[in-house]
Amino acid sequence: MPVPLIDLTRDKALLAEVEAAVVRVVRSGQYILGPEVENLERELQQYLGCKHALTMSSGTDALLAPLMALGIGPGDEVVLPTYSFFATAGVVARVGATPVFVDVEPTWLNVDVQKLEAALQRCKRPKAVMAVHLFGAAFDVDAVLAVCRKFSTPLIEDAAQAIGAKHQGRMAGGDGLCAGWSTFPTKNMGGIGDGGFLTTNDDDFAATCKLLRNHGQAELYKHHKIGGNFRMDAIQAAALRVKLRGMEQVTLQRRENAERYRKLFAEAQLLEWCKLPVDTDRHAYHQFVLRVPKAQRDPAIAHLRQQGIGCAVYYPIPFHRQPCFEYLGAKAADFPVAEQAAAEALALPIFQGLTEAEQIDVVGALKKFVRA
Fold first, then answer.
1. Is the pLDDT of residue 1 over 80?
2. CATH code at position 300
3. How far apart are CA 151 and CA 123, in angstroms?
4. CB neighbourhood size of 34 (10 A)
5. Is there a domain that residue 328 lies in?
6. Over the Cα atoms of the chain, what is R_g?
């Protein structure tokens, strides 16, 4: 039987709860912001242990709003890892600032702290650091924060893939000035459309971002700042409230799937052929990304897909090689770890609801490929 990369429809009881929540919103007549959104924000604050949670229209907007709140624009620089989903770099360019790319460390592919410090030393107008908790593994927040403080530069955490992740016993996303999160449907806590949220422990910053979320108006038709329409629909909030209740179980299931993969790969004697993801304090496993020999990565993908097994590459093109950033003149040789990861990364199914039999099929298909 085919094994999908992700299946959002397996938990029928959960889907029924989501449907009931959506019907509740439809019948309420309150579709933008309102009680569902306010309740979700309170529940996110409680779950993540943060002072403020502001729902947003997308994870991208949850990263864009902080840059706007900080007044970052043309001539300013924002330092960030070159290996992530495009939104991390895209929002910097959208406000007219210059993204400054740094390489990642080889274990979790999170920002290399030494490279980060060197980049900040070279910057003329560094206004923020945006570090990413990639694939559900928290970056070394304490080390990154130490560098940020050295240069008096605020830290924005890209926590789009990090719901449920922990670092040193703390939930990810609560250490920097703020964190931007995504609730895109394929995320560990995914909605039924685009969505995201921003968290912060800074009262004034939260107030500014809340203003920006709704066209900069604190009262109807009176605009104190130029903001945007970053509001979350009430239907999304209602669906996410259902999903949030099961987040601890989702994280546990994904971690159990990761451990089962480790056992299966060891039994199949494939650990010399590939490198498996390394666990952390609490890796949330938004993705389970192997590192396989460069020459065999694309043939392995073709083989898996031929067998009906879902897989993907996250991410094939680092930011420094994106056509839209050619004007920065970055050299691939300056980012060897990201270059290697882009050539070797192979993501396998890890979603909650994935069965042991399906994981056996995935590993069996890879064993067949390697032994062919």
1. no
2. 3.90.1150.10
3. 10
4. 15
5. no
6. 21
